[in-house]
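Hi,

I'm pasting everything inline rather than attaching a file, because the server keeps stripping attachments. The sequence lines come first, and each chain or strand is labelled.
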Amino acid sequence: MHRLFAQQIAKASAETGSLDMERLSELVSGAYDELDRDRRRTDRSMSLMIEEIDAVQRNLERLVIERTEELRAREADLQAQNMRFNAAISNMSQGLVMFDGDTRLVICNPRYIEMYRLQPDDVRPGHTLRHLIDRRTANGTFSGDPAQYVESLSAAIKAGLTTSRLVELDDGRTIALVNVPMAGGGWVATHEDITERRRSEMKIAHMARHDALTDLPNRVLLRERLCGALTHVDRGKRLAVLCLDLDQFKNVNDSLGHQTGDELLRAVAGRLRGCVRDTDTISRVGGDEFSIIQTDIEDATDAERLARRISEAVSAPYDLHGHLVVVNTSIGIALAPTDGTDANELLKNADMALYGAKADGRGVYRFFEPNMEARMKARRALELALRKALVNGEFELYYQPVVSLDNEDVLCCEALLRWNRPEHGMVAPADFIPVAEEIGLIVSIGEWVIRRACKEAASWPDHIRVAVNLSPTQLNSRTLLPTVLTALAAAQLPAHRLELEITEAVLMQNTEVTLRTLHSLRSLGIRISMDDFGTGYSSLSYLRSFPFDKIKIDRCFITGLGDSNESSAIVQAVAGLAQRLSMTTTAEGVETRAQLDRVRELGCTDVQGYFYSPPVPAGELAAMFAKPFAENIAAA
Amino acid sequence: MRVRQIIWNNRSGWTAAKNESDDASLVLYFGTRQALACGTRYRELRAMFPQSHILGSSTGGQINNDDVNDDEIVAAAVSFDATPLRLCRREIGGPHQSRDCGEAIGRALHADDLQGMFVLSDGLNVNGSELVAGITGVTGSKIPLTGGLAGDGADFKETLVGGNCAPRSGVVAAVGFYGSAIRVGHGSAGGWDLFGPCREVTKSVGNVLFELDGEPALDLYERYLGPEESKGLPGSALLFPIQVFDVERPDTAVVRTVLAVDRDARSMTFAGDVPQGWTAQLMRGTFDRLAAGAADAARQARTGLKAKDDDQRFSILVSCIGRRLLMGQRTTDETEAAGAELGVNTVRLGFYSYGEISPHATSGVCELHNQTMTVTTLAEVA
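And the predicted assembly:
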């Protein structure tokens, strides 16, 4: 019997043993109900569970698909990232190498391999730093003690220190090396070839202290060297500072162009180098200005000797692209400790001495003198006054007649500039023309002279010409031709009544432009004279380069007529030559009857000088023109 | 130690009780709420055992040896030879004071020679986990604490506990066993089978579960119960207990049983915490497997008892109401299975509860269990 049924019978039995059938059927029926419910519950839960598990499985499958796709996408991302990373590393301009905590190679880029001329085998991941260093030692790209290097680098990395240093390779390269520790005990190193950069830096540093054109030290380095040298002066040594510039450099630049000017400066620098000792310093401090520190001198005569050497060296002719160029140099000298013990003071004083040298005429040297400052002030005042003079109408033209030896008629009057300086009186041209040239006033003054001379000549008798001197600067100026044309037109003076006098110096810088200008002027009917012939680099070839109308023989030959036969011979030769070249000759500076007779004998055609007349103001000319000289002289 | 069983029923009143003097120091009794509520039965017991500690509660069914019934009051009078007892009783105040209440009881019972405690608690107005934690927090984890939450059949309306007083709602009462003679064995097992997918506790507050896998928990239960049995909620929810555990620590797994449902909020209140973020899995039982579970619990209680086989023993069986609801008339399968393990010289008394208290079978930590059979076995040694 089933245990449950036995229980049920027991429960349905009374204490007396009688069976309560109703109770029994209730129990049995209840048990069936319970079993049914349990079965239904079980069925239900099982099918729900299966449904749920199906759903869970579907979810899982979906999740697996999604995750797989995610993983694939992530993998692709990772690959792309790796590619970018690789591209970045491979294309770095620096060499990169990474080691793990056991000092074993993890990765290095192609630049690193190339930098140290390594083989692919040398850089397999897993190789030790020591292996790599040994390979580099073998191929000459590492010098030093490999064991010590590996040890000190490992120690630094262990201590978490970033190290950086510059390595000079035996082949001349400079490598900047940085080792940066990484988390986990390894490190990454970058190797940068900074050879070019260093070269550039050094070049820039050099450029900052040197003149680009001549490669001489510049003002900055000069000052440094001077300060350095002056510390020795404190210990009883002496030194000299020489400041110099080139006379007429501006002319060279203006007439031959800047390139030639630069070439000249380089040539001068070269000659200066040849004049000094290695311990001295030559510096180009600007334009055509140079300064020299002469160290360890005994006394002033050492400096003087150097100045002479320089003067001589610099003034020798230069052949610049086929042009023969001559320049002189003026030199100012200051001595330490006599003239100062401070760099600024010495340079200032040497500059002052240079100023003094230039004021004393060119091509000379001068030692600094305490009174130079006063002279310089005077010179500055002169410059200032000169600039005002033109505006204030302080210039005046005097005229000196040129007289024909045939009939003693006045052929021509040479216009001579005078400056009536307020509170100073009349100033001679020699005292202000060079200054005017230097400060660039000469062209303006020259233009005024041409206009004024033309205007005044217009009132003279028709047969009398006016002669005007042209400075080299004027002749090189592009405004000369228009100036002459406007002056003639304004004065309504025929061109044949104007004579322009040029000196040999003009032809020394015989450029195409100069000759073209002279031909243009001559073609207008203007007469061109060669002035002061016989001075300077007198060369007959000048006479050939241009068809002058007249040669004016310098007064020194006329003065010398009484004393030397040489002068006579020269005057005669020039006059004869001129005649054969269809030029007239004017003897300048004729003061006596004897000189007059002599130059006539020697073949000159005209004379100029105090014998007939000193230069006179324009207002006195009318009287002179009214009475022929023949009568005047006869009357005298 | 001597044990005498006494039964009360409507027809005959107390059996075998009158005219006998008794030196019992502890009287345990269990009956339905309806049978105990008037207090008369307690007063009758008190009259019979004026010197004894009298401890009892309402149930979801009484166990008297193999028999399981709803119409008798079952009691046992236990005479100890050398074991002092202490009984204490506290009002809980409410579920939130459960830990305080437990600590008070712990303090009342704590003593150096305390060997074990048996506690009965109101089954509805309590957080059983907190109560247990409160007691063991004072007495320490080495002293075994067993017992259960009083039941109210399948009604879940009111539960009664009495400790030297007429049983009433909102009471916790416990007895402590002292001295060197007493031996306490205990065992706890379920026999339920996990089934269906694991679900995440996506919304819960304390012991109130709102959602599993984002779905209202009550929806899930109603679906599994079907329309007919859903009408029996919350009681019918006991047919599908739930195991919850922290996925990071699988040893935290505990079985939870339903105390109440809120059909508006679609939530379910459990006898212990259901932490949010933990994993939950439904369980189901079969007659045979549950009976085997009961046998397992009995075996643990027997083998853990350090006493001779021929000593008189007394076992208190506290089993879950859910088991009874599932097994129906077959409930005796589990009382018989337990009895077979415990042996013939063991007197068995017990009840179907709303929660069982016993040390964990493997961890030894005293806990509130659900859906288990727990067995406490007492013996005295000379």
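Chain A has a mean pLDDT of 89.

If the labels don't parse on your end, tell me and I'll reformat.
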